[in-house]
């Protein structure tokens, strides 16, 4: 049985994109209190179903899929460029496909401008009008205004006209940066992207008996099930180990493992993997803010996701990528093991001109990761790392990093790392890692 809260969320999801909603209307349509309606609308906003736009209200928006996360809404553009909306507020929830810089003649500009575009242009009122008529939004640079007739047309067609005090080059750079940041986020796989949803999850209730476990075990072939109450709140986990020695008429709440470890949908898959390895568990319940079950993830789901991440093409360079993209493996003539070499660039240094602690940590971790992969040991999750410098490492020095396995098992490893420059040891590290089988 669905709760009023869930009914409101389902109702909001069924609304067409662009539909306006309010606490009062929701409360009246669903026959709930305004407090319940308000809380549900706030959760819908967190989930990306609706957006609250100043002087427009709360409206249903297109839910962003993971593969389209690099698309920005016009409302987000307003925030990025510190803009002022001159007209077309009703279209701020729409997403833009691309932006066009209007530094050309009108005829040429219109060939590149169409529906879903954002035209960035200065004080050219005729261009503003043609762009709106072509289905594009307009971003006016230099803090200029436009004609009232253009604003009226923008309101009718629900295509935003935004004014910003920044110049065209600065605006284009700011929007590019925002899209680039979104591309990096696209690579971060979250639990909500891989979970088995609630409707496909076999659950037991606290009032069920052990007999029910045997029935589900026979039907599904699984031995681990989440235990929920009548409000879908997670109460425990039941496994084959829990039911051993108990009568089949015993209720589940008497034998289940209570207060299980849970995660929410926004948890990264890497964090979930770390929990599962450290705690030695096979499945994790995924819950919402009210501790209601949303689905389950298994260790197999997590491992598949981690492998998928590594096969993805590069779609946005992070600081770690910039630091390690010149990292190369070299033949080691000293027989000390694998050696990884890189040059210390100015970006890797602190204000004193020596390599920063964070960059050195990244280099050491990357060297160990690559070394263990070459030894068929899988990927690593760092449990503990101790680093100390023996000599200053300055910019333009060539750094050679040599990991050496001190102890390794199926799940754990202890690694000693030495960093050399011109044949002299300049730094050392000791790492304790968890191993994830690939």
UniProtKB/TrEMBL annotation:
Superkingdom of source: Bacteria
Instruction: Give start-end of the signal peptide.
Output: none
Q: What region holds the CBS domain?
A: 195-254, 256-314
CDD domains documented for this protein: CBS_pair_DRTGG_assoc, hot_dog
Q: Which UniProt keywords apply?
A: CBS domain
A Pfam match: CBS
Repeat is among the record's keywords: no
InterPro entries xref list: CBS_dom, CBS_dom_sf, Diverse_CBS-Domain, DRTGG, HotDog_dom_sf, Ser_kin/Pase_Hpr-like_N_sf, Thioestr_dom, WH-like_DNA-bd_sf
Q: Does the keyword Lyase apply?
A: no
PANTHER family associated with the record: CBS DOMAIN-CONTAINING PROTEIN, CBS DOMAIN-CONTAINING PROTEIN CBSX3, MITOCHONDRIAL
From the Swiss-Prot or TrEMBL record, give the protein name. Answer: DRTGG domain-containing protein
Q: Which organism is it from?
A: Metabacillus herbersteinensis
**Upper lineage ranks?**
Bacteria, Bacillati, Bacillota, Bacilli, Bacillales
């Amino acid at each position: 049985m669905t709760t009023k809260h869930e009914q409101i969320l389902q109702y909001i999801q069924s609304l067409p994109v662009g539909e306006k909603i309010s606490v009062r209307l929701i409360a009246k349509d669903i026959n709930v209190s305004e407090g319940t309606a308000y809380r549900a609308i706030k959760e819908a906003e967190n989930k990306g179903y609706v957006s609250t736009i100043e002087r427009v209200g709360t409206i249903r928006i297109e839910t962003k899929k993971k593969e389209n996360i690099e698309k920005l809404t016009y409302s987000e553009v307003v925030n990025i460029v510190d803009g002022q909306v001159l007209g077309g507020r009703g279209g701020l929830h729409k997403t833009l496909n691309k932006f066009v810089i209007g530094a050309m003649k009108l005829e040429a500009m219109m060939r590149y401008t169409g529906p879903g575009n954002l035209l960035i242009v200065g004080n050219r009122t005729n261009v503003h009008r043609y762009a709106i008529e072509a289905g594009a939004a307009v971003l006016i640079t230099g803090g200029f205004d436009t004609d009232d007739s253009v604003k009226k047309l923008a309101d009718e067609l629900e295509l935003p006209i935004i004014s910003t005090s920044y110049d065209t080059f600065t605006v284009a750079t700011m929007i590019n940066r925002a899209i680039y940041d979104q591309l990096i986020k696209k690579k971060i796989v979250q639990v909500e992207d891989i979970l088995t949803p609630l409707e496909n999850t076999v659950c037991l209730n606290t009032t069920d008996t052990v007999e029910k476990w045997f029935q589900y075990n026979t039907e599904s072939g699984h031995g681990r099930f989440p235990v929920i109450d009548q409000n879908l709140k997670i109460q425990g986990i039941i496994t084959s180990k829990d039911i051993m020695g108990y009568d089949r008429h015993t209720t589940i709440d008497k034998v289940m493992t209570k207060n299980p470890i849970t995660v929410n949908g926004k948890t990264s898959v890497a964090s979930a993997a770390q929990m599962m390895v450290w705690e030695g568990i096979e499945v994790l319940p995924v819950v919402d803010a009210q501790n209601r079950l949303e689905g389950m993830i298994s260790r197999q789901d997590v491992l598949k996701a981690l492998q998928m991440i590594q096969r993805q093409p590069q779609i946005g360079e992070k600081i770690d990528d910039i630091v390690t993209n010149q990292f190369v493996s070299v033949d080691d003539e000293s027989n000390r093991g694998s050696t990884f070499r890189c040059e210390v660039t100015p970006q890797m240094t602190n204000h004193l001109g020596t390599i920063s602690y964070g960059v050195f940590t990244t280099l050491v971790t990357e060297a160990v990761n690559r070394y263990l992969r070459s030894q068929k040991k899988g990927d690593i999750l760092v449990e503990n790392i101790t680093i100390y410098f023996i000599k200053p490492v300055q910019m333009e020095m060539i750094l050679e990093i040599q990991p050496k396995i001190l102890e390794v098992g199926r799940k754990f490893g202890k690694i000693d790392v030495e960093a050399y420059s011109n044949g002299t040891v300049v730094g050392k590290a000791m790492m304790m890692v968890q191993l994830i089988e690939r």
